[in-house]
Each structure stands twice: as C-alpha cells, then as structure tokens.
C-alpha cells in the first residue's frame, strides 16, 4: 500500500555543524516543523526557512557559521528582489553563546534560538512572521523541551537518542557548560518510550547521547528496585530488554563517571557494543590538572585496564588536545606515551583553541601556533598508525555487521562493525536493516571490505 504523502506548503533546509547531539536536535527540529507544513528542501536556494544548527566548540566552527550567513544573505536578498521570502534561524551553541552578536553582525538573521529553547521554534516563527524584528531565545528549560518535542520519526536502522544534556565539569578549555547548561538527565520512562517508538519503526541500534552520557542518573522506574538510583549501566541493561533493539552504544563518556555498574554492564550485556569513546585530552598530569579534568593519566590507564579485563575486545577511542596553555614538549611526550600504552582504535585530536570566557583563554604561557601544528602532526601520525593497525587486525575475522545504507556501487551495502568501523559489503538491497554475518577480507583507508559468510548469504 502506498501512503498519500501530504503536500508540503513550505520547505526548510537545515545545515548541521558539530557533534551527534546537534544531528539529533536537527532531526527533532524537522519533526517539530512538519505539522506546520514544512517539508525538506534540497538547497538553501529553494527553502522558505534555513536553519543553521551551530557548534561553538572550536573557533573555526563559529567562523564557518558567519561565512555561511554571508552566503545566505546574498540568497535572501536575491529572493526578496523576486518578491520571495526566506527566513534565517541560527540554532545551537553559537546561538547560545553569541546571540546578541549574531544579530548585530548578521542582520539578515530572523531568529536566534539556543539548544535548550528550540522546541519554541513554531512560536518564534509565528512571531517572526508578524514582523516583530529579531528574536533571541536562549533560555534553559531542558525538561520542558523534551516534553514538547514531537514524536520521533526514524530514518534507517540506527538512531541517536539523547538521554542527558549539559555538563558540570567545567574543563578549563571548554564552552559546553556555558552553552548547554548544567547536567540534566532525562527520566527512564521517557527514554524507554522513545526507544520503543524507534524499535517499532525498525531501528536496531540506538546510540545514547549526552555531553557526559555516563553521568546519567535517574530513579529506577516503578517496580524496578524501589526508588533505587540508576546509572547508565542499569539503563543500558533495561533498554536491552526492548524487542528489536539489538545494539546499544553511548557517547561521550567522562573518565570520572565510569562507575562499576557501567563497567559490569560492558562486561555482561552483549547488546552493549564493544566500543568506548573515553576522552583523556592529555597524558601529562600537570596539564590534566590545569584542564580541570579531575583525574590523572595513571587513573585513566588503570580504568581502561579494568574495562579491558571485563571486555577484552573493546575498541577504545578518545579525544586529545595539543598545545593547551603551559604544555611543554615533555608534557606532549607524555601524551604520546599514553597513546602508545593504550592503543587506540580511533581518536579525534585538536589544537587547543582559545575560547573567550573560558579560564583557559586567560591562562599564561599560550603555546605558539607553529608548535601546536607540529605536535598535532606527530600525534595524528601515531593515532593513524594505531587506527590502521586496528583495522588490519580485523582481516580474516567474522563479525556481525548492521547493514545501514546503500553504497556507491551496484549491490553494495555499507554497514557498521561492532567496533564502529564502516564495512563495505556486496549484498542485495533487500538486506538493508539486517545484521549480517560478514568476513572481513580487506581494508581501505577509511573502511573495511567484507563478504557475506555462508550464514549471511542464507539470510539474503
Ligand atoms: N580547543 C580544542 N579542542 C577542544 N575540545 C573542546 N574544547 C576545545 C578547545 N577549546 C575538544 C575536546 C573535546 C572535544 C569534543 O572537543 O577534545 O573532548
Ligand atoms: Fe566540555 Fe569537559 Fe564537559 Fe566534556 S566534560 S563537555 S570537555 S567541560
């Protein structure tokens, strides 16, 4: 049966920058705007509304937004000369951090809406249409936001699910506690309801999101332990009971919140995938202290040892910053030594970027740019060697791959290994959304090459 599609009266184009949290928020904005008659636009030129969902974590991210706003201004002017209208909204963390500055620097913007206020988009659009001038909405009301969001519409067999927002850690380099606000956990029932809704739409894998996802805490649901406090480990075990959900991931974790309950769950719950993104940022204790990370390098190494003891095949991923104020060559060598000791399957590494308003920006001994460049090149070379080594070590192994989307070639599907590697497999389209048994036969720079095993072919 083919369903008659409602004709969209208007269209929205959303450009998303930054982390998975923003990807999730953008999906929710699409859901919010649908009842108002907005369908998707392929390009900003064809859209009635353009939303930039922004990221403020590093300097370049904000600058990209301003240059995109410059391009949009031209489109908006050209449209208005033809008698057509286009509204521009800036959402996300740049909106939160620089609301008034955006309006001053980019008068073509109609609405500025922070990450905790985007559920108010419908009313903000109505206000903008009434010609009330620039609208700036950057309140924090996380619970209200989740209550008012429209039902989830899944798009494929994997989905993000936000369970926690904000951060109380105040690392001295980071803007997140200022742009996303304090740590807030969503209650279990709301999370379970959203996960069930996703499962009913064919989602097989959920990635639980939070700035500090493993700081998630909530009261157990009625009948599950008399008001006991649950952590992420208990939540994952509970979500694993939902029929249809076969894989659970979570990101991003903080070493200080990696509790026993979660480590035990990683060891025992097979639906929890063997991949852990656990940023350490630096391998030097004095730098970790100046960053206000609240742990030492030794603590991190022991933590990974404990996790590997219960889940020996776990792939470890991390984030690193080079050139934090005061970082010496010796400190940087300590980071390289930690990377050698841990062995990363994948990692993200950045040059320290001075963020106005954070304590790090005012610290003495800022590291010269050229030095940061050199350190980043060395660190990335090492991480890249480790990543390739990890990928090559999969050759000859058989593993379950969730087939997510079609590839560039005929009869090619792209899926994910348990370790979050992209896997290219020759398989018919009818297998999309299945978890297939795949033999790894090769590696390319960014993916694994796989072939369906005999069992995998039988499922085709
Ligand atoms: N400069 C460079 N990298 C940063 N990150 C966060 N803030 C900064 C900054 N000011 C990196 C950290 C964090 C990741 C999401 O972004 O490594 O874990
Ligand atoms: Fe930023 Fe640190 Fe919070 Fe992570 S833990 S979001 S790096 S302040």
Structure summary:
The protein is 36% helix and 22% strand.
Q: What would your notes on this structure say?
A:
This protein is α/β, with parallel strands linked by helices. The chain has 3 domains: 10-140, Methylthiotransferase, N-terminal domain (Rossmann fold, 3-Layer(aba) Sandwich); 144-392, tm_1862 like domain (pyruvate-formate lyase- activating enzyme); 398-459, OB fold (Dihydrolipoamide Acetyltransferase, E2P) (Beta Barrel). It has 14 helices and 21 strands. It has helices spanning 20-33, 59-81, 93-105, 121-129, 142-148, 176-179, 188-200, 232-239, 260-268, 285-290, 297-310, 329-342, 369-392, 454-459; strands at residues 10-16, 38-40, 49-54, 87-92, 111-113, 135-137, 158-162, 164-165, 184-185, 205-209, 218-219, 229-230, 247-251, 275-277, 315-322, 346-351, 398-406, 412-416, 422-426, 435-444, 447-452. A 6-stranded parallel beta sheet has the order 2-1-3-4-5-6, sandwiched between helices. A 5-stranded mixed beta barrel has the order 17-18-19-21-20. Strand 4, helix 3 (93-105) and strand 5 form a beta-alpha-beta unit. Helix 8 runs parallel beside helix 9 (260-268) and helix 12 packs parallel to helix 13 (369-392). It is globular. Residues 1-5 have low confidence and may be disordered. It binds 5'-deoxyadenosine (5AD) and iron/sulfur cluster. Residues 167, 169-171, 174, 176-177, 211-212, 254 line the site of iron/sulfur cluster.
